[in-house]
Write a structure and sequence with these properties.
It is a single chain. Helix content is 66%, strand content 9%. The chain contains two helices and two strands, in the order H-H-E-E. Helix 1 packs antiparallel against helix 2. The protein is rod-shaped.
């Protein structure tokens, strides 16, 4: 799942939690799923940050340390 798709799922989860007729069990399950999605997004963002490349003076791409 892409980060964008995860953000859509998180928005859907928030909307579900904001409903007046959601039961406690459903709210807890939705909250738990949302937290898992947030962790996955954070992990994906961390991976991207670690792969950030910089352009060296000689024109070669090297990993940013």
């Amino acid at each position: 799942m892409t980060i964008e798709e995860s953000f859509v799922k998180i928005e859907e989860t928030i909307e579900k939690l904001e409903q007046d007729d959601v039961s406690l069990e459903e709210a807890f399950a939705a909250y738990s799923d949302g937290m898992k999605l947030l962790k996955e997004c954070n992990d994906q963002i961390d991976k991207v940050e670690k792969k950030v490349l910089k352009l060296a003076a000689d024109g070669q791409l090297t990993e940013l340390e």
